[in-house]
Amino acid sequence: MSAQAPLRSVDAVVLAVPDLDAGLEFYRDGLGHDLLWRNDDLGQAGLRCPESATEIVLSTRLPPEPNWLVRSVDQAIDAITAAGGQLLSGPTDIPVGRVAAVSDPFGNRLVLVDLSAGRYTTDQHGQVTGVAPEP
């Protein structure tokens, strides 16, 4: 059954910040997390967790919440709603794939992300320059 389980891994933990520079001052400069990417248009920056593939995503627009990596957002929605969960928003296309928000029967909000379009590419300063398909 675990091969069919839709939630593959924690892609990111979103943390709300008043502005990206203040968030980066604390998490990058103060705590030492490396900047992976920054997208000012989205009000987000991704930081590396050194012993994990999970990112810390600082956001000026989203509430604190876990983002779950799934193979397909649409298939994960189907599985979760069939099991008693509820679709809250989406699915929506994003630069790196698709995203949706669901809840379990207990009211826990789960953000589902697939990277079907690839991963961000960045310049030497971490600014997003595009998206490259997964190899």
TrEMBL record:
Entry-linked Gene3D superfamilies: 2,3-Dihydroxybiphenyl 1,2-Dioxygenase, domain 1
Tree of life domain: Bacteria
Pfam families, alphabetized: Glyoxalase
Domain VOC: start-end pairs: 9-115
InterPro entries, alphabetized: Glyas_Bleomycin-R_OHBP_Dase, Glyas_Fos-R_dOase_dom, VOC_core
Cross-referenced PROSITE patterns: VOC
Protein name: VOC domain-containing protein
Source species: Kribbella pratensis
